[in-house]
Structure formats: structure tokens, C-alpha cells
């Protein structure tokens, strides 16, 4: 965190003091921990009628949470949770939409966020201030490759199929989406040179991917062939790390810088199931074109769809009805969403006052 973000509040810190009493327990918290709220409920170890409660409660709200963990999103359970001095939350989900399912939260949330689709945009821009090092990566790259273009298109590529790639079906999907939706012009492959105008429109394409080949493919297409429209297309990729290396600080700095650079584009194309693209769309307040997740290593048809809003999708919605005490399809209550898992966990500690 120290190398990624500045502290958002004066005289306050993202970090707990090193002598914080429970700090050594954090690494051991997971879905199987005895201290999880879900496990305490399952084993009848906790109830609102108890006179003596533990000093803290661990809430497991990650993608693998079960029906008992999801009771956090029920109003009746919130009455019990308010009695604890400390709540420790471990999550890799963006679960803000679920808070609107609770009547006791809804009025206050509506006052704070009258426009629900801007929540991540406002909180992200307010809290996530890149460190000086990361901001340097962002500004130097933007000024060198993107600032002078007439239009900027961001393309974020993430695949989850086995193998390193690049994959031909993904290349075809990117082309089908960007050209089919007229985000990029077609090229003249007939051999006849199209004379560009004296002042051709210049479009900068920013590609982000762990893999080099998708950038190389698009760069060569627009280098070797003129566009039918006469536009000049420049293709750029800041890094190609080949694989995710979250243990390396510089790798994480580059990742944050590229998310932010994507958010500075005019039009955005992202990959389904990828938080990388979701962060970019939220920070930039953009409605991206989302590349459908491929099935059986084939190019989806259609290749992409326009997002419904700038707000990131609800990663793992709780299919649970608090009143009925059973599973339910919450799509009727919430907008349709894609299931997405963040690459890393965030551990949040709340002091209840």
C-alpha cells in the first residue's frame, strides 16, 4: 500500500499500528476460521440474546462465502453486528450494491449517493490517490504517447484460459468488437495506398495485457496497412509482465498506473471477469464495451456488449432472501451482473462508534 497510494486523510493512516492487538491473526483468517460470523451462526455460538459478546467479529465476505456469511446483508443480523466494538472484514468482492438491499441502510445510502451508478467513481477518485512514484509513471506515459492524440481508445485484455497466449480467437474477438462497433477504422489490405489528408485524425490506442502478442498484432495491422478512413492509428502498451506477480511492488505500481491510464481514455474496451478493467471504468466514469468471456476457445458472437453503467458489477451477489431464510435469484432486485473475482484480498477493520 505504501508504494501505491498516498494517505487520503490528514494525520491519519491506511495502516494499523504494529502493536495492534489482533494484527498477527489476520493472515490466518479465511472461510474456515472458527471466528467467522457465518461459522458462529452455523454452530449456534452467537445470538442477539447473549449478554456477553467477543470484543471483535470476523466477517468473511470473499467470493467463497456461504449462506451463513451472507447473513451480514440481512437487517436482523445488522442489529447484532452493531453490538461489537470491532468488525474485521476480508473481501475480494465489490459488494456495495448489496448494502442497498438492507432497508435500515437504504435511506442513509440514498442521501449519500443519490445516483447509485457513481458510487465507485466518487469513492475511488476520493480515496485512491496514486503515490508520487505511480503518478510519475502515469503522467510521463500519458504525455509521451497519449496527450497529443485527437482521440484515445483503451483496450484491456485478460484471458482465463489455460496457456500463456496470445490466442488467435482473442485477437479475432478484439478486431470484431473494435471494428464492428466502429471504435477503430478498417484497413486497406488490397495494396492500394490511401493518401492521408494533410491533417489526418490521430487516434491513440492504449493496450494493457500481461501478454505482448495482442499489442503486437494490432500494431502491425495499423503499421503495415493504411486505414480506409485516412486516420492514423498509434498503438501503445506500457508493459507486458507475462504473469501476475503480486509479491513485487513495482509490478503492482505498473498495474495501478495502467488502470489509471485506461481511465483517462475517451472510449474503453475491457475483458469480462477482470477487475483490472472494472477499476479503470469506475475511475474514469466510463461505460466500456465488455469483451465476452470465451467458451471452448472460440470467438464469441457477438464479441462484446456495452456496459449498462460506469459502476462495476456486483462480483458475487448473495443469492439469499433474508425474510424467507433461503436462496433466491437476486437478479430481480439488482441489475444483471457478471461474476468477477478480484486478484487480491482487501482486509478492512472498522471501529464501531
TrEMBL record:
Assigned EC number: 2.4.1.-
Transferase in keyword set: yes
Superkingdom of origin: Eukaryota
Presence of the UniProt keyword Transferase in the record: yes
Major localisation: Golgi
Keywords: Cell wall biogenesis/degradation, Glycoprotein, Glycosyltransferase, Golgi apparatus, Transferase
Membrane topology: Single-pass type II membrane protein
Subcellular location: Golgi apparatus, Golgi stack membrane
Pfam families on file: XG_FTase
Enzyme class per UniProt: transferase
Protein family according to the UniProt entry: Belongs to the glycosyltransferase 37 family.
Function of the protein: May be involved in cell wall biosynthesis.
Protein name per UniProt: Fucosyltransferase
Species of the source: Hibiscus sabdariffa (roselle)
Amino acid at each position: 500500500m505504501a508504494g501505491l497510494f498516498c494517505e487520503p486523510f490528514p494525520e491519519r493512516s491506511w495502516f494499523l499500528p504494529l502493536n495492534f492487538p489482533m494484527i498477527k491473526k489476520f493472515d490466518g483468517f479465511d472461510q474456515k476460521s472458527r471466528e467467522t460470523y457465518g461459522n458462529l451462526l452455523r454452530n449456534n455460538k452467537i445470538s442477539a440474546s447473549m449478554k456477553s459478546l467477543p470484543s471483535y467479529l470476523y466477517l468473511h465476505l470473499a467470493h467463497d462465502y456461504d449462506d451463513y456469511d451472507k447473513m451480514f446483508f440481512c437487517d436482523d443480523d445488522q442489529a447484532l453486528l452493531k453490538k461489537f466494538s470491532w468488525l474485521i472484514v476480508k473481501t475480494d468482492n465489490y459488494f456495495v450494491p448489496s448494502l442497498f438491499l438492507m432497508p435500515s441502510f437504504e435511506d442513509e445510502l440514498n442521501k449519500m449517493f443519490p445516483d447509485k451508478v457513481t458510487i465507485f467513481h466518487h469513492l475511488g477518485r476520493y480515496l485512491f490517490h496514486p503515490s508520487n512514484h505511480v503518478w510519475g509513471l502515469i503522467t510521463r506515459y500519458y504525455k509521451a504517447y497519449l496527450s497529443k492524440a485527437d482521440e484515445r481508445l483503451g483496450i484491456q485484455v485478460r484471458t482465463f484460459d489455460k496457456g500463456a497466449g496470445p490466442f488467435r480467437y482473442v485477437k479475432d474477438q478484439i478486431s470484431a468488437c473494435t471494428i464492428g462497433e466502429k471504435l477503430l477504422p478498417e484497413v486497406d489490405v488490397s495494396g492500394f495506398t490511401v493518401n492521408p489528408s494533410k491533417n489526418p485524425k490521430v487516434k491513440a490506442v492504449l493496450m494493457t495485457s500481461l501478454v505482448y502478442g495482442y499489442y503486437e498484432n494490432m500494431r502491425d495491422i495499423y503499421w503495415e496497412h493504411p486505414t480506409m478512413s485516412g486516420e492514423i492509428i498509434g498503438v501503445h502498451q506500457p508493459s507486458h509482465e507475462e504473469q501476475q506477480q503480486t509479491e513485487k511492488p513495482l509490478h503492482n505500481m505498473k498495474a495501478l498506473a495502467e488502470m489509471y491510464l485506461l481511465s483517462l481514455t475517451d472510449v474503453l474496451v475491457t475483458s469480462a471477469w477482470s477487475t483490472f478493467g472494472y477499476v479503470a471504468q469506475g475511475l474514469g466514469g466510463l461505460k466500456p464495451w465488455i469483451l465476452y468471456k470465451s467458451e471452448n476457445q472460440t470467438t464469441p458472437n457477438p464479441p462484446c456488449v456495452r456496459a449498462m453503467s460506469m459502476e462495476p458489477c456486483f462480483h458475487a451477489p448473495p443469492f439469499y432472501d433474508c425474510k424467507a431464510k433461503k436462496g433466491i435469484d437476486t437478479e430481480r432486485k439488482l441489475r444483471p451482473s457478471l461474476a468477477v473475482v478480484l486478484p487480491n484480498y482487501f482486509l478492512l477493520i472498522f471501529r464501531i462508534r
